[in-house]
Design brief:
With about 60 residues, the chain is of the alpha+beta class. It is built from one helix and five strands; from the N terminus they run E-E-E-E-E-H. It has one domain. It is about 25% helix and about 35% strand.
């Protein structure tokens, strides 16, 4: 999960496995695989950096 900040200042944790797209509209909008949309304060690059950092922390996924 990654932490992001809604436009009203509330911090929320988002399961990055559920993020389908991240777009600038001009605010940053996360669209989840279930269709939920979240407007956040962080820019696209910051969201991507947080996802990459999370993936590095948890290591490779083992499918089995």
């Amino acid at each position: 999960m990654i932490l992001v900040t809604r436009l009203d200042g509330r911090e929320i944790a988002v399961n990055c496995d559920l993020v389908a797209t991240v777009e600038r509209t001009p605010d940053t909008m996360l669209t989840l695989t279930n269709g939920t949309r979240l407007l956040v304060r962080e820019g696209i690059d910051e969201v991507v950096d947080r996802v990459v950092a999370f993936r590095r922390r948890i290591g490779p996924r083992v499918e089995g």
